[in-house]
Design a protein that fits this description.
This protein has 85 residues and is an alpha+beta fold. The protein contains two helices and four strands, in the order E-E-E-E-H-H.
């Protein structure tokens, strides 16, 4: 079963709604990608940690955003898609 990619890349429009967003980080391609979360205040992200993509919607808490990020881990989704399962 193929799972849909539900992430938005950072070069797409910034979020409209302030809140916590699931994010995926990548510092070094050899190390892979890591799930995380960031807060969008309506103008800027809460910190300068690098990330590649965000969830399409906000969450009420940092924990909820991070949980969604782990559930939609981009590396796992890519493995499932490549395997065709």
């Amino acid at each position: 079963m193929k799972m849909p990619m539900s992430w938005l890349w950072l070069d797409e429009a910034p979020p409209v709604t302030p809140g916590w967003y699931a994010t995926t980080h990548c510092w070094d391609s050899a190390e892979g990608m890591f799930p995380g979360s960031h807060y969008w205040n309506g103008r800027n992200w809460d910190d300068k940690l690098p990330f590649l993509a965000r969830s399409p919607h906000s969450f009420a808490t940092k924990e909820a955003a991070k949980a969604w990020a782990y559930e939609h881990d981009m590396e796992v989704l890519m493995e499932v898609t490549e395997d065709g399962e």
